[in-house]
Amino acid sequence: MNSVLIRYHEIALKKGNRPYFTELLKRNILAAVKDLGAKEIRSLPARLLLTFKHDVEVDVAIKRISSVFGVANFSLVERTTETLTRCALAFLPRSTATILNPFASRPSVATRLFRSLPPKLIVSSVPR
Fold it and tell me: What digits encode the pLDDT tens for the residues 100-112?
């Protein structure tokens, strides 16, 4: 594992203090994983992406990051150029998760309502 996507608790502050507290959280995360070889930590909307120089032990990374105050949850990330099938085959033996049907397609309520409309009404609702 070479990256971690971290979601932090809502930082609802007035007068532009959010960047200060986000930077403080980034420093605390880097301090927690400093000996694991952190490469960089980037700010994304409501998330942080922590990248390591090399693969790190998953158990150690989980323990360190979960102990940082302000981290809501996080996901372990593997960057790859492989296809989805090859990624699933490589990841599933290491995972404790059970995937029942990863490619299930369920229509949304809007789709079901759209199908139930009369054809004349559907055609007339298209802007010209």
Answer: 555 555 555 555 5
CATH code, domain with 11? 3.30.70.1510
Distance CA 45, CA 96 (A): 29
The whole-model pTM stands at 0.63
Q: Determine the Cα–Cα distance for residues 32 and 26; give it in Å rounded to an integer.
A: 10
What single string gives the DSSP state of each residue in 32-52? HTGGG-EEEEEEETTEEEEEE
- 80 domain residue, yes or no: yes
Cβ distance 8 to 70 under 8 Å? yes
Domain residues for the domain of 77 are 3-100
Domain for residue 63, yes or no? yes
Residue 108 CB neighbours (<10 A): 8
In a domain, 128, yes or no: no
